[in-house]
Amino acid sequence: MAGGLKAAIVGSGPAGMYTAGALNSKCPGCQIDILDKLATPYGLVRAGVAPDHQTTKNVSRAYDKIMENDNVRFVGNLGLGDDISIAMLRELYDVVVLAVGTPKDRTLGIPGEDLEGVFGAQTFVYWYNGHPEFRDAVPHLDITNAIVIGNGNVALDVARVMLRTPKEMAQSDLAEHAGEHIFSSPVRTIRIVGRRGPEHAQFSSKELSELKQMDGAIPYCDASVIPEHFSTGDKKTDKVVNTNLDLLREYSKNVPAANDRKLSLDFFLSPVAILGDDKIEAVRLEKNVIKDGKSVGTGEYVEYPCDLLVTCIGYEMTMLDGLTIEHGKIKNTEGRVDDGLYVVGWAKRGPSGTIGTNRLDSQAVVDRILEDRCDDTGSSKPGPKGLDDYVRENKIQTVSFEDWQKIDMAEKESAAGPSPRRKFVRKRDMLSLIRESNA
After folding, report:
1. Does residue 176 fall inside a structural domain?
2. CB 343, CB 327: distance < 8 Å
3. What is the dihedral of CA 67, 81, 345, 380, to 10 degrees?
4. Is 1 within a domain?
5. How far apart are CA 406 and CA 20, in angstroms?
């Protein structure tokens, strides 16, 4: 393909970064601007990955390499919708790729979901990871009993982070304000609740095994719900599930003492009502059985006291600049939304997979882009220069990759002890640092 293609990628998380890397390598001479509403790049690597999973966050080093190419720019603090429209981006660039994720928590759809003390996973995770838009989302953790709805790794993350001790989190990048609440919380019991059985849970064995390494809490599971063996004929699936079942059997032998904090892994329960006046006081759950592969209510109920409920049941797309939303994602055909407009990552396929899943997915969409535009002989669109003119005319303070490196260095230099960084959690503080350093 001829050089000169000008592309804007909206979103600098894994999907956006892998798209930039693939486009840069497969289309020599292209110009790529990576836009993000935040002043910091890399999306969920910074704001979604658990703060005590620093090894996972090391993937950002590969993204740094992509950013070091002269034809690739980071343009932070430029929000889609708030600062610039898709229509304007399509006027400026030959190709616009939306890598915006799925920014809305799915709801339970039950009475009481609007009570104080009920949070979606994204809100809670962004809060303890220091996302600027969620700095004040959780006002306190003066609670005794918490329930986490969901049987995936995010549910494990939420419960584990809430139960870790200061010593255990010393090498993490847990946001300072969140640590103050978490470490002083009087929480005694957290239940992770799933509507199906242990064999259907989506926990990774690595994350499930981390629970036995916690200093400040005892994991427990009722042995009666754990099947003796699980087999589908798929060796890879069977290995993961049976490893998980072995871990749950190990946890079932735990006998928490009266003064121990307890993490209970509960199954075959579906929340049907959140109880309380102004704030949550309890959750009513229906007992389930599995019939024909589906979870079916029995009409028998239990109620558990609860001061905090976090729902980890997935995410979905919200309305975006007039685009069609279908089944919780942007309507597309193999990543193509319209002429010159594409989508990657969760916004394309839904909230599924790991960080690495986005790599192959993004490469496939880049191949589609190059097929669609294989006859291009150059571009008359303004691209990066046009964006710079637009930003200047609208008096928007954008953040370059060099600016981000200054934020990054300041966070690392202000870290306490073995922690890798002390995060800025206010955008205004980041922008002030940049203005002062550039003065």
Report:
1. yes
2. no
3. -60
4. no
5. 22
